[in-house]
Amino acid sequence: MANKFNLMKLVLAGTLALTLTACGSSGTNNGNSENAAKPDNTAAGSTNKPEDTKKDNVTITFQNIYPDPTDPKNGMMKKIVKQYETEHPNIKIELDSLNTDQQKLKLKTQAASKEVPDITIVNPAAQMQPFVEAGLFAPLNDMVEQNGLKDTFQEGILDWYTFDNNLYALPDGNNIGVVYYNKELFEQGGVNVPTTFEEMVDVVKALKAKGIQPMAIGEKDTWTGSFLFMNMLLRTNGGPGFLQDVIDGKKTFEDPAFTEAVSSFEDLVQAGAFQEGATSFDYNAGENLFKTGKAAMYYMGSWATGGIETSSVNGKVGVFKFPTINGKGNADEFMLAPGSGFAISANSKHLQETKDFLNYFMINFPKEAFAVKGAVGIAQKVDGDFKAAGYSDMAMEVLSLFQSVKGGDLAFDNTMNPGTAQGHLTSIQNLFVQKTDPADVAKEHQSAYDSNK
Asked: Where does the signal sequence lie (predicted)?
């Protein structure tokens, strides 16, 4: 597996490709971006020909994680699908739109019975590996060579989806974790952007005292709390690599850096940072609290930018880096999020037709994402001037943060095996419900790791 790729190089190369266009270049640096920008029925990836008049009807199931109609990517997906169906009358694309946790659970069930949908969603690195080893996904090497599709991706990003020199998924994102904040609510609460974690806890308490909900989260989808927690561990560890040190036998979960991260996380929870019943809010419901102006802060990957930009709080939102904790860590080190990837079932009854559609979808993805203001943090090169296209000041702030990235860590469940990851997700979710001795949380993690080696 190509997971030894240098993270800093991946992010810096990717952000360079993105921010060059963000600053108003002519777009001539983007390889085959001309293909991605074709607006009509001759869009790259189309294989429709006048003589193709009598073909068998084909239905392709497209499992995805764009269920929220307010998410720009939802509308973008439907537009590309409709366009493809128009050009290929014998093809029907059946959408199976689920939130992230629902999709993960459904895919596990489908994988167990070897009934993976034609196109599904999978996360990179460790999360992909069991599916690849089980032979459930089709290699896509041949597909990405069509129409220069491979060259539309940012340098190095495809390595996270490659095993034994075979590419098994195409990512939709290349993101960093940031804190979004509502400037109006900060002003009403009389608080400023925190530069340390200790100040962040004080901001939470001050907002709470003014009757303002400090932070929003959708912890029913357990990865959300984990993503935040891991940014805190990145700080208390003094830099990236804690989980890799555990895997290499250099550290255990009972290391002081881990227990300090748990303690700090609990400080945030106990200060009243999150909405009541946070574990009953899924990702979309949690994010909607922020997007409707009902919460002052929201920690999430930069993929959330597009949805926030098209919400009622657009124009009121700024972003800041997750701060240092007890003087530890570097704010220019971020949680790095190579996005979820589109994989094709090795057992698809319509393998070639499915490859043709996914090729078309990904060729058109950058252009359509840019058009709906959803192109911040995508995995492909973007041909366009973000500012001239009307992207908000917030979006431009996020793009500027990409330029400051000095490295970081991947999410827990993209690094550890599935059994350990599930133990971690459950353990962190419990912290939203009850305060637990950090030493006991560390032992829970170590036990899960030892049981799943």
From this structure: 1-24
Measured CA to CA, the distance from residue 381 to residue 74 in angstroms comes to: 20
Integer Cα distance of 16 and 299 in angstroms:
24
Alpha carbons 343 and 359: distance in angstroms, whole number? 11
How many residues are listed for the chain in this entry?
453
Q: How far apart are CA 411 and CA 336, in angstroms?
A: 7
Instruction: Tell me if residue 41 falls in helix, strand or coil.
Output: coil
User: What is d(CA 430, CA 227) in angstroms, rounded to the nearest whole number?
Assistant: 15
| Whether the model pTM is above 0.85 | no
Segments of the chain scoring below 70 in pLDDT: 1-54
CA count, 13 A, side-chain hemisphere, 329: 31
Contact 184, 312 (CB under 8 A): no
pLDDT of residue 453: 87
Query: What is the number of other CB atoms lying within 10 angstroms of the CB of residue 76?
Result: 23
The closest of 344, 340, 370 to 357, measured between CA atoms, is 344
* Cβ density class 393-412: b for 16+ within 10 Å, e for less: ebbbbbbebbeebebbbbbb
Q: How far apart are CA 233 and CA 315, in angstroms?
A: 32
The domain covering 175-337+407-451 belongs, at the CATH homologous superfamily level, to Periplasmic binding protein-like II (3.40.190.10)
pLDDT digits (tens, 9 = 90+) for 86-145: 999 999 999 999 999 899 999 999 999 999 999 999 999 999 999 999 999 999 999 998
Residue 343 structure tokens: 């994989």
DSSP lists the bridge partners of residue 274 as 215
Tokens of 23: 């600053």
The three-state secondary structure class of 218 is coil
Cβ burial 276-305 (10 Å sphere, 16+ → b, else e): eebbebbbbbbbbbbbebebbbbbbbbbbb
Question: Tokens standing for 321?
Answer: 């880096």
Long-range CB pairs of 202-207 (<8 Å, 24+ gap) are: 203/297, 204/268, 204/271, 204/272, 204/273, 205/271, 205/272, 207/296
Burial of 122 (0-12, 13-18, 19+ CB in 10 A): buried
Q: Smallest Cα–Cα separation from 117: which of 169, 64, 57, 63?
A: 63
Looking at the chain, which residues constitute the CATH 3.40.190.10 domain(s)? 38-173+340-384, 175-337+407-451
